[in-house]
């Protein structure tokens, strides 16, 4: 999740691209796992981090 957070903060890459870079099968799976670990969806985290 640390790598995901770093990419969300610093990259303009779409969420689907980040999900694939991190080895998730799709964006939906990435969203579920990220939210379970952080309490935020990746999109919400990105908005708050910028």
Largest sheet: none
Average pLDDT value? 96
Q: Helix- and strand-based class?
A: mainly alpha
Give the helix level as a range of percent. Answer: over 70%
Beta-strand residue fraction: under 5%
Task: Give the terminus-to-terminus CA distance.
Answer: 17 Å
CATH architecture name: Orthogonal Bundle
Assembly status: single chain
Remind me, CATH topology?
Arc Repressor Mutant, subunit A
CATH superfamily: Homeodomain-like
Record field, number of beta strands: 0
In the CATH scheme, the class would be Mainly Alpha
Overall geometry comes to globular
H-E order:
HHHH
Domain count: the total is: 1
The radius of gyration is 9 Å
Number of helices: 4
Ranges where pLDDT stays below 50 over 5 or more residues in a row are: none
Give an account of the 3D structure.
With 50 residues, the protein is mostly helical. 72% of the residues lie in helices and 0% in strands. The protein is globular, with a radius of gyration of 9 Å. α2 (15-21) crosses α3. It is built from 4 helices and no strands. The chain has helices spanning 2-10, 15-21, 27-38, 42-49. The mean pLDDT is 96.
């Amino acid at each position: 999740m640390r790598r995901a957070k770093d990419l969300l903060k610093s990259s303009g890459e779409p969420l689907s691209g980040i999900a694939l870079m991190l080895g998730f099968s799709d964006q939906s799976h990435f969203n579920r796992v990220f939210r379970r670990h952080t309490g935020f969806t990746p999109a919400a985290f990105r908005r708050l981090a910028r």
